[in-house]
Amino acid sequence: MFGVWGLKLSEAAGKMLFSISVLSSASVIAGFLYYRSVAALPFAAGIVLMYGTNILRIVMLDRTAGAVALTEGMAYANRVKLQYLARQLLTALVLVIAALTPYVSLWGAAAGIVTWSVAAYSLRLFIKH
Q1: Which residue has the higher pLDDT, 93 or 122?
Q2: What are the φ/ψ torsions at residue 113 (nearest 5 degrees)?
Q3: Per-residue model confidence as pLDDT tens digits over 62-104
Q4: Count of alpha carbons within 13 angstroms of residue 99, beta-carbon side
Q5: Strands (E), 2-60
Q6: Where are the domains of the chain?
Q7: Backbone phi and psi for residue 9, each to the nearest 5 degrees, phi listed first
């Protein structure tokens, strides 16, 4: 178990959270270096908004994986599908907020989505088999 912010997460979820934190921080720094002004704030807001969403997605994914491990039969299939749909709807909601709000950059939110993908693929590097 991996504990962060009072959450009990699996080792894989904790490492994914660490990867997303590092990638999001690097993206915010890169945004400030690119824009070199206050114009970087909406980009940073998009990344921070998506970072919070990614934390929720990690917790949801970890809870689903834990429930699937305890569930027998085909009852877990509907739960997995529902959780997947909920995670995708959450991401879509954040993208809509970023698109409609002038204070949040859609590109920042998109960069936050990329951090999820990179962290998921890099997870294999951190997990010992």
Answers
A1: 93
A2: -65, -40
A3: 888 777 666 666 667 777 888 889 989 999 999 999 999 989 9
A4: 7
A5: 2-4, 7-9
A6: 2-126
A7: -115, 155
